[in-house]
Amino acid sequence: MIYHAGYYIKFIFLMSGLLGLAHTMCDNSVKIEAFPPGHYETYDLNHAGKAQLRELKQFHKIGEAPKYLTVAPPIVEEDLKENVYNLLNAAVKKRLMAHRRIGCMLSGGLDSSTIAALVVKNAKEMGITYPVQTFATGMEGSPDLAAARKVADHIGSEHHEVVFEPEDGLAVIEDVIYHLESYDITTVRASIGMYLVSQYISTKTDSVVIFSGEGADEVAQGYIYFHNAPDSTKANTESHRLLNDLYMYDVLRADRTTSAHGLELRVPFLDHQFTGYYLSLPPSMRQPKNGIEKYMIRAAFDTGLLPNDILWRPKEAFSDGVSSQKKPWFAILQEFVETQVNDEDLRKAATTFPHNTPKTKEAYYYRKLFEKHYPGKGEWIPYYWMPKWSASDDPSARTLKHYKS
Questions:
Q1: By CB count within 10 A, which of 43, 83, 93, 109 is most buried?
Q2: Do 221 and 404 meet the contact criterion of CB atoms below 8 Å apart?
Q3: Are residues 275 and 286 in contact, defined by beta-carbon separation less than 8 angstroms?
Q4: CA 163 and chain centroid, separation
Q5: What CA–CA distances, in Å, run from 235 to 104, 228, 263, 385, 389?
Q6: At what angle do helices 185-204 and 329-337 cross, to 10 degrees?
Q7: pLDDT for residue 76
Q8: Structural element, H or E, at residue 163
Q9: Mean pLDDT score, 321-330
Q10: Could you read off the pLDDT of 183-230 as tens digits, one per residue?
Q11: Rg of the Cα atoms in the chain
Q12: How is the beta sheet containing 8-11 ordered, strand by strand?
C-alpha cells in the first residue's frame, strides 16, 4: 500500500519490491514498514482517483480459535493428547492440496520430523502415488544429518542430504541478507543452511510445495531458555510475544529462504485451529516437564510414528544442528568476520548505527551488508533476537547452560 503524501509506504510481502518508488534520487526519505499480520485494510477511491484508507481491522489474533469452519475433528474434552494429535494431523492433511509435488524439510528434530511423518502418512492415505521427498542439510558429521537420515528410514521417504562446506555457506551470506531483508544475527545464521537446501530443491528436484516445522517452538515453548522461566505466567507471556513477532524472525527466515528459490512453504504448527487449542491449555501444561521441552507434543505423538530417540531428542537450534562435530557454525562465522570488520569500525558502531547498534563484528558485518541493499532501513528489525532469562550475549542455544546435545 502506498501513500504518496510524505512518501509513506506499507509493505505486504517483499520490501525490496517497493524500493525505487520514491520520486527522489534515493529511498532514504521513504518510510516503509511491515503490514501487521492478521489484519486487512479497506480503501475508498476519491474523485481525484486517489485511494484513501477507510479502516485497518484485525481478523485474527494469536491464540484465538478461527471464526471460519475447519476440517479438524471435534475436541475430546477428557483427552488432551488425542486433541493435540488430531488437530496437528488435520492441519497437515488440509495443506496437502497441491498441484505440484510435495516435499518436507527434515532436520531430524521433533518439529520437522513430526510434520514429515504426518505428511508421508496422510499422503499414502490420500492416494498420492509418488514418494514424498525429504531434505536435510548440514556440514559433514552434523547431528541433523544423522538424525534426519534415521527419521527418513523410519517413515519411508525419498531422502536427500545437502552437505555443505563452510566456504559454501560463507559465499551466500550477502544473498541471504538481501532476500531476508534482515540483519538479525540468529536469523542470518539459520537462514544460510535453509537457503542452500532450498536452492538444491529448486534446481535438483521437482518438489515445490514444502512442509516445515516452523512455529512449534513459539507455540509450545520449545526454546531451551524456557527451562529458566520464573513461572508459567511469564512463560505464557513470552510464548505470545514470540508468536506476535514471528513474522520478523523465524517465519521470515523460512518464508524468504524458500521463496527466493520459487518454493511454497507450508507450516502446520501455525494452523489457527491447532494454535488456538494449544494456547487455550493451562500455561503450566505448556511448560517444559521433567526437564523436557514441548513435553505435551512429544507425549501426544508417542504412538510409534517416530523413532523413540527422535521423539524425545532435545531441542537443537537449526543453525547449531547443521554444525560439524569439529566446529560449530556460529564459530566459523565469527572467525570469518574477524577479517571483514576492523576494530575501529566496531568502536564507532554506535555513531554509524544508532538503532540496534552492533556489539560484535559478526553483527556489524551483517548490518553493513544489509545497509548496502537497504540504506537507512535498520528499523525494519526492532531488536536482535536473544534468549530470555539468560546471561548469554549470543543467541546460539549452545551457549546456554541447559544445552544438552
A1: 109
A2: no
A3: no
A4: 21
A5: 30, 9, 34, 16, 10
A6: 110
A7: 73
A8: strand 158-163
A9: 68
A10: 999 999 999 999 999 999 999 999 999 999 999 999 999 999 999 999
A11: 22
A12: 2-3, 8-11, 31-34
**Pairwise CA distance, residues 83 & 404, whole Å:** 29
Q: How far apart are CA 268 and CA 274, in angstroms?
A: 8
Residue 333 near residue 189, CB atoms below 8 Å: yes
pLDDT band of residue 325 (cuts 50, 70, 90) is: low
Q: Residue 160 carries which side chain, given as an amino acid letter?
A: H
Alpha helices in 141-225 (DSSP H): 143-155, 166-171, 173-180, 185-204, 216-219
Q: How far apart are CA 124 and CA 246, in angstroms?
A: 32
Pair type for strands 207-211 and 101-105: parallel
Place of cell 505464557: 236
Cα diameter, the chain: 67
Tell me what pLDDT residue 4 has: 36
Amino acid at 32: I
Three-state DSSP state, 387: coil
Read off the pLDDT of residues 65-96 as tens digits, 9 standing for 90 and up.
Answer: 887 777 777 777 778 999 999 999 999 999 99
